[in-house]
Amino acid sequence: MESPMKQGCLRAFAMLLTCVASSALAADPSHGEAVVKRWCAGCHLVEPGQRSSTEAPPFSAIAKRPDFDASKVAFFLLEPHPKMPNMQLTRTEAADIAAYIATLK
Ligand code: HEC
């Protein structure tokens, strides 16, 4: 278990990193992939061969849409979505996930 104090410090550090990262670095698709496998694979098809039992669109289908736009996906992920649990993603996570989905085109 981590102490609340340590968590608060980590959170502040993560926010600082977000500021630095969003101005200097591109999003990290490999981190997005890790997040997606943990949080989204229960409903969305993430990898080929995986079975999906819900109506959630596979990420590769989202990436192939003609109007696909990584920044729109990132924005969508930060909004609560009726059929998806409110996952409280950080802006960095949302950007990394959108960057990962963009690689599936
Ligand atoms: C509990 C099941 C569930 C989980 C978990 C889930 N989703 Fe979804 N998601 C859905 C369903 C169902 C839809 C389509 C229905 C709709 O559009 O309302 C959807 C739609 C989407 C869309 C497409 C929106 C559009 O433009 O059509 C995106 C992008 C998306 N999800 C991303 C994610 C990501 C990223 C995660 C993990 C961080 C995630 N979802 C986790 C069920 C889920």
Automatic annotation (TrEMBL):
Alphabetical keyword list: Heme, Iron, Metal-binding, Signal
Residues spanning the signal sequence: 1-26
Domain of life from the UniProt record: Bacteria
SUPFAM superfamilies: Cytochrome c (SSF46626)
InterPro entries named in the record: Cyt_c-like_dom, Cyt_c-like_dom_sf
Coiled-coil parts of chain: none
All residue ranges annotated as the Cytochrome c domain in the record: 27-105
KW Metal-binding (keyword) present: yes
Biological source species: Bradyrhizobium icense
Stored Pfam families: Cytochrome_CBB3 (PF13442)
Record's protein name: Cytochrome C552
GO MF annotation, one: heme binding
PROSITE patterns: CYTC
